[in-house]
Amino acid sequence: MSQTNNSSGKVGFVSLGCPKNTVDSERILTKLRAEGYDIVPSYHDADVVVVNTCGFIDSAVQESLDAIGEALKENGKVLVTGCLGAKEDQIRQVHPNVMAVTGPHAYETVVNQVHEVIPPQHDPFTSLVPPQGIKLTPRHYAYLKISEGCNHRCTFCIIPSMRGDLDSRPVGSVLDEAKRLVDNGVKELLVISQDTSAYGVDIKYRTGFWDGMPVKSRLQELCEQLGRMGVWVRLHYVYPYPSVDHLIPLMAEGKILPYLDIPFQHASEKILKLMKRPAASEKVLQRIQQWREICPDLTIRSTFIVGFPGETEEDFQELLDFLEQAQLDRVGCFKYSPVDGAAANELPDQVDEAVKEERFERFMALQQQISAARLQQKIGKTMQVIIDEVVEEGAVGRSQYDAPEIDGQVFLDGQTQLQVGDIVTVKIEDADEYDMWGQPV
Ligand code: SF4
């Protein structure tokens, strides 16, 4: 063990999975850092390694198990937490030597486990922690998690069994965190949860207080307040409940970004019912059209699953028709694969792998054409771009219509004088099916 005078010890940290998991990692790291622990980038320098796992799909489970294996091999002292941690038996079958296992959002327990391996020093160096906490995302954007868990029971998903029912954070605490982030230089807030539009349902939209004013714990009111902070506000994981209609005017007025990340997953009513998807019966196409009438700039990102059990050629065709009509901007597609413990595993009429592959190819071919055509329409337009990176060739940013890591980029060749976090007005000169090129005006 390598404790020094001004450090409680050294912790290695591996963070896997979705942005929600990243937020959990940030909370653990903030606490450890506040207690004087150093967070080190190599296994060899660490006194203990924490692996925050993901267990969403089989490939994520495998990636998590591999990461645990690597940490054990390179260091030997390993604490496991996160979604896969809910299945301790599965982990211990492969890696019996991990020191301890906890499930998702067990921040305090993980910190206590670290204490057991390396007791904290009595000089907790709290001043080393920036007031916004430790962020794994670059300083100019940050994820803002507004709730944990989910009240739905989609048949392909095991998140509720790992993370529990919806548990919304009080609105005052969310807004405090947002304000702290903004005060510390964050220019873009990415609102996340498992089910963002359901925010506050579990606490009956309780009225909280912020900035001396009563504010309801409801997405619309939250967005109105966030929209007053003078930064980009982007919404992820929004289901198309009727209440979403109230957010569109905020987008049209420029208060929050004209961007909605809605995981539709399918378009056939039969399949959506088999999936037990939330808001499955809302008239989606009609609503998208109405939203675009109010906010013509609205960008919609979505994900879909092809080859779900029971999906016939007719159902799949319905999905393709939906894509044609909906003209979504950014789309991800997954071939259905069973997740250990998910209800969908028991459904009849599982789809053959070759058929799944063929449908995936057809889906992607169609959507690529749509995405490319929609991006081509942006050539000649001016738009706001946030700079994510400055390299030798120029600056690389994202438009208001692109979220970090999942959407496209905007390349500003030669613009090396720009700074990360700058927001510039750019005229778009070229585009392919994913990225855009332009110059500041
Ligand atoms: S809405 Fe469905 S897919 Fe999303 S977390 Fe809840 S159960 Fe899982």
From TrEMBL:
<keyword id="KW-0949">S-adenosyl-L-methionine</keyword>
<keyword id="KW-0411">Iron-sulfur</keyword>
<dbReference type="InterPro" id="IPR007197">
    <property type="entry name" value="rSAM"/>
</dbReference>
<dbReference type="GO" id="GO:0005829">
    <property type="term" value="C:cytosol"/>
</dbReference>
<dbReference type="GO" id="GO:0006400">
    <property type="term" value="P:tRNA modification"/>
</dbReference>
<feature type="binding site">
    <location>
        <position position="154"/>
    </location>
    <ligand>
        <name>[4Fe-4S] cluster 2</name>
    </ligand>
</feature>
<comment type="function">
    <text>Catalyzes the methylthiolation of an aspartic acid residue of ribosomal protein uS12.</text>
</comment>
<feature type="binding site">
    <location>
        <position position="18"/>
    </location>
    <ligand>
        <name>[4Fe-4S] cluster 1</name>
    </ligand>
</feature>
<keyword id="KW-0004">4Fe-4S</keyword>
<dbReference type="GO" id="GO:0103039">
    <property type="term" value="F:protein methylthiotransferase activity"/>
</dbReference>
<feature type="binding site">
    <location>
        <position position="157"/>
    </location>
    <ligand>
        <name>[4Fe-4S] cluster 2</name>
    </ligand>
</feature>
<keyword id="KW-0963">Cytoplasm</keyword>
<dbReference type="InterPro" id="IPR005840">
    <property type="entry name" value="Ribosomal_uS12_MeSTrfase_RimO"/>
</dbReference>
<dbReference type="InterPro" id="IPR058240">
    <property type="entry name" value="rSAM_sf"/>
</dbReference>
<dbReference type="InterPro" id="IPR038135">
    <property type="entry name" value="Methylthiotransferase_N_sf"/>
</dbReference>
<dbReference type="Pfam" id="PF04055">
    <property type="entry name" value="Radical_SAM"/>
</dbReference>
<feature type="binding site">
    <location>
        <position position="54"/>
    </location>
    <ligand>
        <name>[4Fe-4S] cluster 1</name>
    </ligand>
</feature>
<protein>
    <recommendedName>
        <fullName>Ribosomal protein uS12 methylthiotransferase RimO</fullName>
        <ecNumber>2.8.4.4</ecNumber>
    </recommendedName>
</protein>
<feature type="domain" description="Radical SAM core">
    <location>
        <begin position="136"/>
        <end position="373"/>
    </location>
</feature>
<feature type="domain" description="MTTase N-terminal">
    <location>
        <begin position="9"/>
        <end position="119"/>
    </location>
</feature>
<feature type="domain" description="TRAM">
    <location>
        <begin position="376"/>
        <end position="441"/>
    </location>
</feature>
<dbReference type="InterPro" id="IPR005839">
    <property type="entry name" value="Methylthiotransferase"/>
</dbReference>
<feature type="binding site">
    <location>
        <position position="150"/>
    </location>
    <ligand>
        <name>[4Fe-4S] cluster 2</name>
    </ligand>
</feature>
<dbReference type="GO" id="GO:0051539">
    <property type="term" value="F:4 iron, 4 sulfur cluster binding"/>
</dbReference>
<dbReference type="InterPro" id="IPR012340">
    <property type="entry name" value="NA-bd_OB-fold"/>
</dbReference>
<dbReference type="GO" id="GO:0046872">
    <property type="term" value="F:metal ion binding"/>
</dbReference>
<feature type="binding site">
    <location>
        <position position="83"/>
    </location>
    <ligand>
        <name>[4Fe-4S] cluster 1</name>
    </ligand>
</feature>
<comment type="similarity">
    <text>Belongs to the methylthiotransferase family. RimO subfamily.</text>
</comment>
<dbReference type="InterPro" id="IPR013848">
    <property type="entry name" value="Methylthiotransferase_N"/>
</dbReference>
<dbReference type="InterPro" id="IPR002792">
    <property type="entry name" value="TRAM_dom"/>
</dbReference>
<dbReference type="InterPro" id="IPR023404">
    <property type="entry name" value="rSAM_horseshoe"/>
</dbReference>
<keyword id="KW-0408">Iron</keyword>
<keyword id="KW-0808">Transferase</keyword>
<dbReference type="Pfam" id="PF00919">
    <property type="entry name" value="UPF0004"/>
</dbReference>
<dbReference type="InterPro" id="IPR006638">
    <property type="entry name" value="Elp3/MiaA/NifB-like_rSAM"/>
</dbReference>
<dbReference type="InterPro" id="IPR020612">
    <property type="entry name" value="Methylthiotransferase_CS"/>
</dbReference>
<dbReference type="GO" id="GO:0035599">
    <property type="term" value="F:aspartic acid methylthiotransferase activity"/>
</dbReference>
<dbReference type="Pfam" id="PF18693">
    <property type="entry name" value="TRAM_2"/>
</dbReference>
<keyword id="KW-0479">Metal-binding</keyword>
